[in-house]
Amino acid sequence: MRAQQFMGWLVGLSMVLALAACQAGKPVPQQRFDLRGKVVAVDKSQGAVTVAHEAVQGYMGAMTMSFSLKDKWAFDVLKPGQSVSATLVIEGDHSWLEGIVVTEEAKPEGNSLAPPESSRPLVGEEVPDFPLINQDGKRIHLHQYHGQALLLTFIYTRCPLPDYCPLMSKNFGKILEEVRAHPELSHSTHLLSISIDPEYDKPAVLRAYGLDCAGSPHAFKHWDFASGTPDQVRAVADFFGLKYWTDGGQIVHALVTALISLDGRVVKIYRGNEWQPAQVVSDLQNITVSK
Ligand SMILES: [Cu+2]
Question: What pTM value is reported for the model?
Answer without folding.
Answer: 0.68
